[in-house]
Design goal:
single chain; alpha+beta; Uridine Diphospho-n-acetylenolpyruvylglucosamine Reductase, domain 3; Alpha-Beta Plaits; 21% strand; globular
């Protein structure tokens, strides 16, 4: 098999040295650790097709991997699969400044796509804190959301076409950028969010949004999460150019200050903070100021109209992941909760978690505008052993499953989603059948069987 892979991509692009492979078999959190006999790095769609065909012939499982910034064990070889790295499938091959579109390789970073869009007088509507390492192929595979979903939608809303290799080895390609195209099934929409289980995305055609005009950023202090939910609803009606509304709680804000040494912008730290950003034209500053003045729940406000001050205001939200990771490997639950139940969820979940894990520290933050909350759990004694296979065993595994039951069970009971933007991966595989109906899952299995009949693409993820 290794000889076959080398004949396709070249010997230097089949990595087998354990020290080199090591970085590809552990996720960003360090909570999922696997093993792999090799990392193969194809340099073109044709090479990907040959790799998939060779692996299908010999029944060798593949895990497609981009920037490896995933958080649910979906991009690491937990069952000893070969890793198919998209690192050489990089580059931005076309920018259409008139149409507001570009074509990028799956291995290109989100930050590079944002720079290319800006260079053409446009902007890419998806933004994540991991922008410098997350790849476009990975964001498509997970239908990533991020900070700007409130106005621009998820990755699927930006996707005009894909080039990909299916599990059959067949190549599908539709990169013309047609906005109106009703010729059959939307394969781009199907592959987006499929977590590499149906095909390996190699190139994408993306829609861009107008370049930002006057921008105003504000950090707002409130007494309760219910006040924050009310405020965001009010701002969405009063400020049409609102792009982001992010939730921060007091304990998380203090943790960020402790771990990063940056003094809180709002001091004393209020119980709840919401970071919002509105982007014109027209200049949204007056509209935002009037809206904040009219809302009775506002306790404190900091405003930025220049880039440096905006970065300082955003720090309390964007540094959360880094600050929490310094406490050890966190258990992460990325969920969506309906707006009417969101405040109650934030209030109840810490108690539900501590009922099954009394030592747990609970950190909740997220995208308030679309109901996407990130529930992170750490323990003072440090993390348990990393997950080293598709299923976790032992006492630590039982504790982790109990915490998942507490969080995700509440989500399902509230009519939410157990995965908002990170995917199902391996971590939430058992929860898919509790979140989706039997008919939904049967339909997914039928699609998987059609496009990956031998089950070689990411076989331990999702289904």
């Amino acid at each position: 098999m290794l000889r076959a892979l080398r004949s396709v991509v070249g010997e230097e692009h089949v990595l087998v040295d354990p020290d080199v492979v090591a970085s590809h078999v552990v996720d960003w959190t360090g909570g999922f650790v696997g093993s792999s006999p090799a990392v193969v790095r194809p340099g073109s769609t044709d090479e990907v097709a040959e790799v998939v065909a060779a692996c299908r012939r010999d029944r060798i499982a593949l895990v497609p991997q981009g920037g490896n910034t995933g958080l649910v064990g979906g991009g690491v070889p937990l069952a000893g699969e070969v890793v198919l790295s998209t690192s050489r499938l990089a580059g931005i091959t076309e920018v259409d400044a008139d149409a507001g579109q570009l074509t990028a390789g799956a291995g290109e970073t989100l930050a590079a796509v944002q720079r290319a869009a800006a260079g053409a007088g446009w902007r890419y509507g998806v933004d994540l804190a991991a922008r410098d390492s997350a790849t476009i192929g990975g964001t498509v595979a997970t239908n990533a959301g991020g900070l700007r979903v409130l106005r621009h939608g998820t990755t699927r809303h930006q996707l005009l076409g894909v080039e990909a290799v299916l599990g059959t080895g067949d190549v599908v390609s539709r990169l013309g950028g047609l906005v109106k195209d009703n010729t059959g099934y939307d394969l781009a929409g199907l592959l987006c969010g499929s977590e590499g289980t149906l095909g390996v995305v190699t190139r994408v055609r993306l829609a861009l949004v107008p370049a930002p005009g006057p921008t105003v950023t504000s950090l707002i202090g409130l007494a309760t999460v219910a006040d924050a939910v009310s405020l965001v609803g009010h701002l969405r009606r009063a400020v049409p150019t609102l792009e982001a509304a992010e939730l921060v709680l007091a304990d998380g804000a203090r943790l960020v200050a402790e771990q990063t040494g940056v003094v809180p912008v709002l001091d004393p730290v209020p119980p709840v903070q919401v970071a919002v950003e509105a982007v014109g034209p027209p200049d949204p500053t007056d509209a935002l100021a009037a809206a904040l003045e009219a809302h009775p729940g506002v306790l404190d406000v900091a405003v930025a109209t220049d880039a440096a001050r905006a970065v300082a205001l955003w720090h309390v939200r964007e540094a959360h992941t880094e600050a929490i990771a310094r406490l050890g490997v966190p258990r992460k639950y990325d969920v969506t909760v309906p707006s009417p139940r969101l405040a109650r969820f934030v209030e109840q979940v810490p108690d539900l978690i501590r009922a099954v894990d009394p030592d747990a520290q609970v950190w909740i933050f997220g995208h308030l505008g679309d109901g996407n909350l990130h529930v992170n759990v750490t323990t003072p004694s440090g993390p348990g052993p990393p997950r080293t296979g598709p299923l976790r065993t032992g006492r630590a595994g039982v504790a982790r499953d109990a915490v998942a039951d507490a969080v995700l069970g509440r989500v399902v009971a509230d009519g939410g989603s157990v995965s908002a933007e990170h995917g199902i991966g391996t971590a939430k595989r058992s929860w898919l059948v509790r979140d989706r109906s039997a008919g939904d899952v049967a339909g997914m299995r039928a699609i998987k069987a059609a496009l990956d009949p031998d089950g070689i693409l990411n076989p331990n993820v999702l289904l």
